Structure formats: C-alpha cells, structure tokens
C-alpha cells in the first residue's frame, strides 16, 4: 500500500473512470492522500461524476509518470461526511481550498476507495507489482 500511496503522491494527476448508462466516462481527477488502507479523493456534489458514483460506485484510475511507469487502482467508492477528512484535503490542496474555501461547504464531497486492487508497472518491460486491500 505504501508504494501505491508514494506513487500517487508523486503523480497525483490521475484519470478516473466511471460508468454512466453502461458507457465509460473518464476525466482528470487528483489524488488527495492515502491513509491506513484508504485512498482519498474529493468532488463537487453538483458534478456528473458525483451522480455517476451514486448510481455505480465502481471506479478505476490510471496514471503514468515521465519515466513511463504507471499505476492502476480500482475498487468501490465510499462517500463520507467527515469534517476531519475535508479539513485535511483543504490543507493539502490549494486548488480545492480556492474552490470550496471551508470544510463545511455543502458542495464538497469526500470519498475513499475500498475493496481495491492496484498494479504498478512500467512500459520498460519490468514485471508489474500487484496489490490488494486487506
């Protein structure tokens, strides 16, 4: 898990895939932080991605760095109304803070990924490493 968190912290600008009416939807999505066995993200409850996740919580994200190393993470999203998590995200991300201002902004939604599987690989041909939540 720590290797995945490290990779995502070094490369936080990921692409998150959801499903809407049986069709894939992919968009840029920033990783916020990892703690324990969880990967945390946030969104706005007025966005399509929020509605998609309410209907189908299954997601997969992908990211690649400039060394042609990549990671994929998939699992189920779990939304939580936790002021401590929101405050930490605002502290970590100046962009999120500039949008939502305070942790009690009703549009700010936070979620983590549970029941996850991850892989870190490389286009160089090195063997991939696989990880799974406990």
From TrEMBL:
It comes from the Bacteria. It holds the Pfam family PNPOx_N. Residues 3-89 form the Pyridoxamine 5'-phosphate oxidase N-terminal domain. This is Pyridoxamine 5'-phosphate oxidase.
